[in-house]
Design brief:
Radius of gyration of chain A: 17 Å
Radius of gyration of chain B: 17 Å
Structural class of chain B: alpha+beta
Number of strands of chain A: 12
Largest sheet of chain B: 5 strands, mixed
Shape of chain B: elongated
Largest sheet of chain A: 12 strands, antiparallel, barrel
Shape of chain A: globular
Oligomer: heterodimer
Number of domains of chain A: 1
CATH class of chain B: Mainly Beta
Strand order of the largest sheet of chain B: 3-9-8-5-6
Distance between the termini of chain A: 40 Å
CATH superfamily of chain A: monomeric porin ompg
Number of helices of chain B: 2
Number of helices of chain A: 1
CATH topology of chain B: Immunoglobulin-like
Structural class of chain A: mainly beta
Number of strands of chain B: 9
Chain lengths: ~240, ~120
């Protein structure tokens, strides 16, 4: 099967995700890989703005600790904080996450992984369960990463429903410290794309800092104009 | 698009038959890779069996190869690579970068046939 056929099949699959999610769509684009002995602290930041939009000035932060529990499986726990106005800033909820590497890197045409995520919003008594495919393909000096996620939401203030999210990152592995990318996101009331970058700096053989950031712009009228995301990951 | 169509599209992404890959062995002992220069054919998918004879874990790392792979002490790991363009791809052991160093040399197909013939 040619690469073009595989890519067309993957795009068809992703376009089939026609129900969309309520939550914030812009977030980390997960890679499908897990390493044994993996341990990390991670900080994520997100900021959205557009005058007269209900989510203008919305900011969210996440701090978490993760580690591998098997050669191909890692878990993490995260604290979520968010605000729209400065006085709203609060701990919004908690999240547990499991990443499962299904295939070794390069073993098949595409590398496959699974994500399971359970989030509890403590202020609103709402819950969210996310699961889906993490897929990556290498093209010489570039890498394409796709997350196709299904989300089930339930709780006091939202109707119970299945939804979906789609994230894509196409990255040029220019230098370890600078890998420019393009990111695309799709979800409920959200279709956006924009430039990003990621990089890594090693402090010592066993300690390194990874960073990534992206500025995502609206692709339609229902999407908030600009979303900035930033993440730092300390691995040790 | 129906669920059946989506599943069919997903199935198309999974190869039904996996081509056999030529296997190479890379050994790690006393925090040294052996062979330190590993010749492989360019333009082919290959498999490298990484055998760690040390008690300590090591991480095979190569930015040009886009690979990071931890192999535990007295254990093995498999690296799936290729098809590689002809050229040299340096790699190192992330936990002992001063000693654990090597280079993968991808040899053009015509030259590789000659090397195989001589061997």
């Amino acid at each position: 099967m040619s690469f073009n056929q595989q890519l067309r099949a993957l795009v068809l699959l992703l376009l089939s995700c026609n129900v969309m999610a309520d939550g914030r769509v812009v977030d980390k684009v997960y890679h499908p890989y897990v390493q044994p002995l993996e341990r990390e602290f991670e900080y994520r930041y997100l900021y959205q703005w557009q005058a007269n939009h209900p989510d203008n000035n919305a900011m969210a932060q996440q701090f978490g600790y993760g580690f591998s529990v098997a050669d191909n499986m890692a878990i993490s726990v995260n604290i979520l904080a968010e605000r729209i106005m400065p006085e709203d800033y609060r701990i919004a909820g908690y999240e547990a996450e499991l990443r499962w590497m299904l295939t070794e890197q390069g073993q098949y045409s595409w590398d496959w992984g699974l994500l399971f995520e359970l989030e509890r919003q403590k202020q609103t008594d709402n819950n969210e369960f996310t699961t889906g495919l993490l897929v990556e393909k290498e093209f010489e000096y570039t890498s394409l990463t796709v997350n196709a996620l299904l989300v089930y939401e339930w709780g006091k203030t939202i109707p119970a429903e299945w939804e979906s999210e789609f994230r894509l990152q196409y990255r040029y592995r220019y230098l370890p410290a600078l890998q420019p990318s393009v990111e695309i996101y799709s979800g409920e009331n959200y279709k956006g794309a924009g430039p990003g970058f990621m990089g890594v700096y090693k402090f010592s053989p066993t300690r390194q800092l990874k960073w990534e950031a992206a500025m995502v712009f609206a692709l339609d009228n229902s999407t908030i104009d600009r979303t900035f995301r930033f993440a730092l990951k300390y691995e040790f | 698009m129906t669920l059946q169509q989506a599943l069919a599209a997903l199935a198309l992404c999974i190869p039904l038959a996996v081509q056999a890959r030529q296997e190479f062995v890379l050994t790690l002992k006393d925090h040294l890779f052996s062979p330190a220069q590993l010749a492989v054919p360019a333009g082919q998918k290959i498999k490298i069996r990484l055998i760690n004879l040390d008690a300590a874990p090591e991480e095979f790392e190569s930015f040009p190869l886009n690979r990071e792979k931890v192999v535990l002490g007295n254990s093995e790991a498999i690296l799936y690579l290729g098809p590689l363009a002809a050229g040299e791809y340096p790699f190192f052991g992330d936990y002992h970068p001063d000693s654990a160093k090597g280079v993968l040399i991808a040899i053009p197909e015509a030259q590789w046939q000659q090397v195989q013939h001589v061997n």
